[in-house]
Amino acid sequence: MIKVEWQEKRQLVKVSSMYYHDGLTQAQIAQKLGVSRPVISKLLQRAKDEGIVKIYIKDESVHTVELERQLEQYFGLSDAVVVPNNGLSEEMAKREVGQAGASYISNNIKDVKSIGISWGETLAHLVQEYPYERREDVTVVPLEGGMGVKQVQIHANQLANDLAKKLQSTCTYLYAPAIVETEELKERLMGMEDVQTVLEIGRNVDVALIGIGNPYANSTLMRLGYLQEHDLTQLREVGTIGDIGFRFFDENGAPINDSLNTKVIGITLAEFQKIKKVIAVVEGQHKVESILGALKGKFIDVLITDELTASAIIKKMTI
């Protein structure tokens, strides 16, 4: 650092005070001091270099923005969005994350022609919060089956339909359950032309919207009856840590080839990896290990989550 003489330092302090305290523009300061604007610009930069001026950003978003930056760097994400918790309940946090997801999608689908959507409560909030737009050129596609009478509002077919209405566009339907009873039934359904067509469109969407599940804690799969206690025992034995679209993976993101996987009607984890942009919208600290597994498996390009969950992920990475 070059030593700053008293007269020079006085000038740096004076210019900095006029700029940062008085709110004068560089041009106004230059006029007052009888010098050119580039001279003022250089003096302000030198004041920062010499430590005379230190800039602090004071805002509740600073911490979340730093978490976003760390997530992007640690995992090679193209983008991350972290929503402040601010003492929110779990349900409100889920709604806030869904709203952030809706805003992100709305602002980043200019050239998108097809959107694939998985299932889950946070994605349902995203669709509920999505603004009405006119995007008639977009097709919304369910990425796995989903039929039944329990919580149909969070199934992929329903979410695809609801999002298409918000976009004033079209959607396709995958007329099949997410998980069937036998491999034979799966093969018969997968052999149907309509099912094959929708899955092929799903494999080639421009953007995929997904959730990430933890089968052991606060599991929607359990609540809907897709998983039983004996299934959880089996999943633990083979090292399952989470799922995307009913497809299970371990702590390193490696797919789990269990008996449930052979009965799922939907795109596979390997096919998720080939989609141009996969956006995960996830809330909850109980999903930290599951999100980490998905990140390590390179299934995600953009992560939208809450502050407590993001902090816990970063903490795991820095221990």
UniProtKB/TrEMBL annotation:
Residues 23-43 form the HTH cro/C1-type domain. InterPro entries: Cro/C1-type_HTH, Homeodomain-like_sf, HTH_MarR-typ, NagB/RpiA_transferase-like, SorC_transcr_regulators, Sugar-bd_dom_put, WH-like_DNA-bd_sf. The keyword Transcription applies. GO terms for molecular function: carbohydrate binding; DNA binding; DNA-binding transcription factor activity. It comes from the Bacteria. The keyword Transcription regulation applies. Keywords: DNA-binding, Transcription, Transcription regulation. Signal peptide: none annotated. Belongs to the SorC transcriptional regulatory family. This is Sugar-binding transcriptional regulator. It comes from Niallia taxi.
